[in-house]
Every structure is written in structure tokens, then in C-alpha cells.
Amino acid sequence: MRHAPWPLIPDRSPCGRLLAFCLLAALAAPGCGHEEKAHYTSVSKPPTVRLIHPEVRKIVRVVGQPSFIESYERTSIYPKLTGYIEKWNVDIGDKVKKGDVLATLFVPELVEDFGTKKATVKLDEERVELARTLVEVADADVKAAKARLDEAKAIL
User: Fold this and answer.
1) 106 and 86 Cβ atoms separated by less than 8 Å
2) CB-CB contact of 81 with 107 (8 Å)
3) Fewer Cβ close by (within 10 Å): the C or N end of the chain?
4) Do the domain assignments include residue 130?
5) Helix, strand, or coil here: 86?
6) Residues of the chain whose pLDDT is less than 70?
7) Is 21 helix (H, G, I), strand (E, B) or coil?
8) What's the chain's Rg over C-alpha atoms?
9) Is 149 a member of any domain?
10) Which residues pair with 85 in a beta bridge?
11) Does residue 33 sit within a domain?
12) What gap in Å lies between CA 152 and CA 38, rounded to an integer?
């Protein structure tokens, strides 16, 4: 069995006891000193206190969190008529509201139909004017016929 170079229990010789006593005295000596206390304590000098009046305020906190939004459904947009896109007003990903115009369409068939209908309206207006003129002529013929009838009655 080997012995440790430094024994855990000091030997009981007078030299060891003297060494232990000196060590204890060296450790206890700083605690035996007497320091002078401060002239005032925390009780003698009152602390400075600042008073405020509370005011009602609305607290707004903006909290940013990593996230993404995905819709539950996707909707395809189908036009009610076929034509060419003349102007795009919005693009994919833009925010839109109900009633916003997404695109302007050009439909040649509708333009042609509009021109035809416009010409038909103008022709009908001219026919109405012609009919009014014919009514005036017919009224004049009725007056002339009444005048001849009155003349014939006067002769008889």
C-alpha cells in the first residue's frame, strides 16, 4: 500500500500544531479589526422620490412573426365573352376589391354590332321623321278634301 505524499490528517507533533494555530490566526486576524462606520445611515437621509400622476394611454404593440398566408380556394376567372385583352389593370398577386376592373377587353364582334345598331337607330329616326312628314301631308289632303266637299255642298 502506498502512502500519499501529503497526508490528509496533519501529524500531531508540536510543529504541526503550531503551524495549524498560525494558519487559524492569519485567517481570523482580518475579521478582528474595527472600521469606523459612516456618519449617517440610510434611515437618517430620506431617499428622493419622484411622484407622477398616471394618465390613460392606449398601448399599441406591433409584434412581427414569421408566417405566410395561403387561401383555402383558388378561383379561375372565365370571361362572359371572347375577345382580346386591350389593357391589364392588375397583375397576379395584386390586392383587389369587389368591383375593381381587372382588364379591359376588345371584342371586334361587339364593335361591329355596335356600329350596325347605331346605323339602325339612325335609319329608324329618319323613318320616324318621314312618317311625320307623311302624316302632315295626309292632314293637308284631308283639309283639301273637306274644302272640296264643302264647295260641292254649296253648289248643290
Assistant:
1) yes
2) yes
3) N
4) yes
5) strand
6) 1-12, 31-44
7) helix
8) 58
9) yes
10) 105
11) no
12) 150
